[in-house]
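Hey, I was hoping to borrow your eyes for a little while. No rush at all, and the record is pasted right below:
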Amino acid sequence: MMDEDTAMLIRKPSDLRYSDVTPKQVYLNRRRFLAAGTAGFAALAQAGVLNGVQKTQFGSDEKATPYKILTTYNNYYEFGTGKDEPVKLARNFRTSPWTVTVEGEVAKAKTLDLDAVMKVAPLEERIYRHRCVEGWSIVVPWVGFPLNALLKQVEPTSRAKYVAFETFYDPRQMLSSRQAGIQFPYVEGLRMDEAMHPLTLLGVGIYGETLPPQNGAPVRLVVPWKYGFKSIKSIVKIKLVEKQPPTTWNIAWGEAYGFYSNVNPDVDHPNHSQAVEERLGAGGLLGVQRIKTQKFNGYGDQVASLYTGLDLRKNY
């Protein structure tokens, strides 16, 4: 007999909220501190300045989305299924102490506290486009370091074909699987060559500051050529494995959320087209600009070779 959480996972696709359309109103004020006295911005007080951040050759020269939009319009189902809920419900989320375990098909498994995570490699700022499967996009000035720097330290074995990720989950302070409609803890995965690609980032900040809770503090994945749900938040476990690992949204609705989930305007979501996106905070009507979606989110010249010979319609 199924428990309630399992039963929620087999509800029909039309009940899922991950494909809700973008609300008509988005906040446009760039001066994030003007609203610091409001309840929604209580969580922002936890942010701290990151020192020694380097500029790099990677990333976009596009104008970054205003900080206020990045921190008040979020997908983080553990803290609410509405875009405006995580900033409120995650305000008391404590991210210290914190550890990240790296294990599996490796020669040197590690468990790192936050201080050790920050010392894996020099911190860099990379301005990446971020495309959500729902049809909206943002441009984020991430701070972090290449995931491959950490993976090299643990010395993957020849059996390591994939990298599996798991997020922090505490039912005492987060939604239940039943409430959110997806299985917790949230899990994601990449193929090994995707994980080792220099564009793949472990993010620890935005706009030169530590990540706010609603943005996936204290450490998250950033894979700019894939839809946003692949960039798992608040990571506590990284495991190198031989077989393709399960992923949360693929479990919930496999027809819509494939393992690869590369941004592709030619492959529609079952509920809507992926050919056009709404760039938040970019001007235009209600601060939203409609633009054509680029294959691999515009990073094809750097990542398309990873998928040579792979049918990207079948392997969506």
